[in-house]
Amino acid sequence: MSNVPVARPKIVCLCGSLRFSREFATERTRLTLDLAIVLAPEATEASVLDPLLVRALGELHLRRIDLADEVRIVNPGGYIGVATRREIAYADALGKRVTYFHELATRDS
Asked: Organism's domain of life (predicted)?
């Protein structure tokens, strides 16, 4: 056990398109060094997933949002896709704090 005292850490859920893997990694590292617990989706190697699995993975990500104190949107260039918009609406409905990596997009890019 460590002798370094750490208060209850903030739990942050990263959301956004997994095409931004570099930005996800940057945010994960930054938040971890800020002593936050980071929850994020994992990219899969499969190019085409079973539609039921895709739906289940989407629901799994909503459970990450349930656990989070904050939802951080990884949106380089302001891009926010359909799935991420759904996650933002879900977080808003739960009263979660939503923050953005980049300025809000006015439309899908």
From this structure: Bacteria
Q: Is residue 75 part of a domain?
A: yes
Average pLDDT for the chain: 89
**Are the C-beta atoms of residues 14 and 40 closer than 8 Å to each other?**
yes
| Under 8 Å between Cβ of 61 and 91 | no
Task: Give the domain range for residue 78.
Answer: 11-100
Q: Helix crossing, 82-93 with 51-67: angle to 10°?
A: 40
pLDDT in tens, 53-102: 888 889 999 999 999 999 999 999 999 999 999 999 999 999 999 999 98
Rounded Cα–Cα distance for residues 86 and 61 (Å)? 11
